[in-house]
Amino acid sequence: MIQLDEYGYYGKFGGAFVPEMLFSNVEELRKIYVDWIAEPDFQKEFQRLLRDYVGRPTPLFFAERLSEKYQTQIYLKREDLNHTGAHKINNTIGQILIAERLGKTRIIAETGAGQHGVATATVCALKGIRCIVYMGEVDILRQAPNVARMKMLGAEVRPAKSGSRTLKDATNEAIRDWIQNPDDTHYIIGSVVGPHPFPDMVARFQSVISLEMKKQLLEKTGKDYPDHLIACVGGGSNAAGAFYHYLNRKEVGLIAVEAAGEGIDSGKSAATSVLGTDGIIHGSRTLLMQTADGQIIEPHSISAGLDYPGIGPMHAHLIASGRAKAVAITDQEALQAGFELARLEGIIPALESAHAIAALDKLSFEKSEVVVINLSGRGDKDLETYMKFAPK
Amino acid sequence: MNRIEKLFAQKKEGILNIFLTAGYPGLDDMPKLVKTLELAGVDMVEIGMPYSDPLADGETIQASSKIALENGMTLDILFEQIQELRPQVKLPIILMGYFNQVLQYGEHRFIETCKRVGVDGLILPDLPLIELERRYHRLFADAELPISLLVCPSTTEARIRQIEALSTGFIYLVADAATTGNAASINEQQLLYFKRIQAMKLTHPSLIGFGISDKNAFDQASQFAQGAIIGSAFIRAISGLAGEQLHQAAENFVQRII
């Protein structure tokens, strides 16, 4: 059974390794999150926004030409069709409702590629709450369109200037901000990472993905589950949502696709399940890339959303226990898969999601088997990168 | 009686604890700096084990940690430095760092090494109370390696009592709910918090840290605790210095405080 224990652990991974200055905030959330999310009033508002604002349910699309190529039955869960272009908004809608109930007047968030930053800026605009997004200085330069979107939505984008100046450092800065502003601020963390209860809370908000999938699969295939379920994993929020209602359904093969960067042994990789060891990052015990001395190693991926040295504790447990299989995809393979999906199905995937598509090549399926790929985001933000590598 | 207990037994007020980052400004500067500090009148030192992702530290200490790591500082080098330094100074030496560093070194190996080289106590800000209680308290207690726990303005009274029960060193009173190095001086709200803690009559001695940067703040803090910890302000005072200048700056800094 995949289950969270009372201390916030999945197996040996999880917990809340936060300094005393953050304890009261994290504890406040821990006490209320399960009950509040279950409340009918909360659910009513959450579902209304997911339906009327985000545009859910997202379609489950039978990808005919892709299926033909890989000789199996491939469906795409179209999270790319959500408002703001990715699954990230499922979580920010849920957390803004929590923040509102807590009476918080200031929201902070971290972002890598800018997708979570945009999704946070969006819900803050919707609710008229002040929004500050921490983003690595390097990412600000390489993701200019998303920086502009956040600004247009009224958010303040603060550069993280420490360390490698990417997602890991933006997360550090957001946590520091929260330590300094514990009373009026809620931290909308963007993935299933961080101290308990964040990984579980974010997974619950993202679980709408697999809830819809069950119903849609039943209608389309006659059974409510796929044989194989594929999702990319950076911190792991889209995978957590796609896996959620199948965690304890052994008939479903769970496949977590990581970014191998320039290759697992290249020194420029983000394949945490292979390169990572048991440790603590951003308040949670999990697998992370680190030196023997416990210093965190800078990861690399062409996709800013997968460019993270850790992995959510639930995924660390799924992989370590053998429940999920990890597949590593290089930058090059992801780019190729992006072009393949564009030309076979007319869908340009985010570079993150392209990693999940690329996994098709590494796996084998029966012709009659049902394979679902969680297409977590759209590729508009990545066009410049794609064009650099466009096939002649 | 360990060195921490001895100090607090002998000196009831005005204890000055200086924080310095191991391997900063130069890889080998820490041991000689500690000697300089002791001669200048510092009562205790807190040595930061430089970490790549120091969540509870402000910009100054974070930047010093980065330089220390670039200088090549590792836990093995640090332990060697402390072993050599230990017989040359009398003051208690406290190690401050992040729990992942302890985990990766190996909890047992870390504790054994601390004892062997003469570390007098630990501060691990991201090791939460619940984890300490569940897994590690016994380990530290059996090794007689004191661990100092943090109390901050949002810590409830019931929790402070729990912290007291598990703390084996002094209580580290976080002056402000801000990461280190930001506050200018002690404000009204902080005074109320210090008075509240003082009224609780803690069974452990306490030191106030975070945001204590000058004589004025140090003297104020000393009214509510046995003394205070100064970190960022000291790091700023020695930033970029080497040789004689470095030690002169350290000495001058202490003289301005006491």
**What is the CATH domain class of the largest domain in chain A?**
Alpha Beta
End-to-end C-alpha gap of chain B: 27 Å
Q: Could you estimate the helical fraction of the residues of chain A in percent?
A: 40-55%
CATH topology call of chain B: TIM Barrel
- Mind describing the biggest β-sheet of chain A? 6 strands, mixed
Strand content of chain B: 5-15%
Number of strands of chain A: 14
CATH superfamily of chain B: Aldolase class I
Assign the structural class of chain B, choosing from mainly alpha, mainly beta, alpha/beta, alpha+beta, or little secondary structure. Answer: alpha/beta
Overall pLDDT score of chain B: 94
Biggest sheet: strand arrangement of chain B: 4-3-2-1-8-7-6-5
Task: Give the largest chain-chain interface (CB within 8 Å).
Answer: A-B, 34 and 42 residues
How do the strands line up in the largest sheet of chain A? 3-4-14-9-10-13
